[in-house]
Amino acid sequence: MKTWTGIGLFIVLGMLAAFMIGFRPHFTESLPIDDEQTGLKDRIVIKFSHVVAENTPKGLAAAHFARLVKELSDDRVEIQVFPNGTLYSGDTEFAALQSGAIQMIAPSFSNMSEIEPAWLAMDLPFAFGDQQAVNAALQRELGRLLLRTLDSHKVLGAAFWANGFKQMTSSVRPLQVPDDFRELTFRIQPSMMLVSQFQALGASSVKIPFNEVYGVLKDGAADGQENTISNIASKRLYQVQNYMTISNHGYLGYVVMFNKRLWEDLPPDVQQVLQQALKETTAWINQETASMHEKQLSELKEIDGFTIHELTEGERQQWIHKLAPLYDQYEHIIGSELMSEIERPK
Ligand code: SIN
Description:
Blueprint: H1 2-23, E1 44-49, H2 57-72, E2 77-82, H3 93-99, E3 104-105, H4 109-112, H5 131-139, H6 141-148, E4 155-170, E5 185-188, H7 192-200, E6 204-207, H8 213-219, E7 224-227, H9 229-234, E8 243-259, H10 260-265, H11 268-301, E9 307-310, H12 313-323, H13 325-334, H14 336-339
Bound molecules: succinic acid.
């Protein structure tokens, strides 16, 4: 009897020990984890991928949007933001959105021109005098026509976010008059218009994803590049460039897009929350970029070895004159309907 009790005790203790060291059934691992203990089955997760740093207009807008959506949806909708191209680069994010691998992106207008040439309109040099002119155009027919080009691509264009005007930088010499561009190579975003822009200035260009710009400038594979002050500052391009010209010659903005199928499957109240959050974010970021650029420009002015030149009116007229042929060259590609919405620079 004593022997049987001993054996029984031995078996029970053995099972207990096995359970403690990890041989317990793994039913908990197959369950999703609800960190905040909100209803799991109702939670909607939207992955938003982008290529810039968190402290840039697009990075800040994405985070602001995510916060607003969480708040307005009472934590039912979660926007997961993936910055810095950690998921997809500018070259691959559109296809990922179409496939549904991610559900939200905000590519630059230049990137969109590879998908639909109509977006080249936004890369026409000196097409807009200031941010108000851009906003006004995008809120009217120009914006409507651009968004319409997305209809056949399984994506829904939902808003335009501002970054701002592009400035030129170089490591070789100051860029004041068109002749200063001769025989230099510039990194560009993918856009035929930007290829032609640098050709017209006597330079050549090379398409490089945003994440690689610093390296390419450092290695000398490109002598210069064009970008907004926030992109130049956040990527520390001033460390590998010596000159910047405040030229405001081109515009960098974003179209915020959803995967269309996801959008159509969302309940109407969730669509409404997303629209409201986008509206508020768009107004917020359009205000925010101006003061951000002003602050960053004064910081850049303090950097030793980084010389900043403001284009004079006379120099600006020379650039405009050199780049004017692009308007006729691209009219048939962009289409006359869209071109009639753009004023030629004076
Ligand atoms: C971006 O702002 O999304 C990228 C800009 C660039 O590629 O220069």
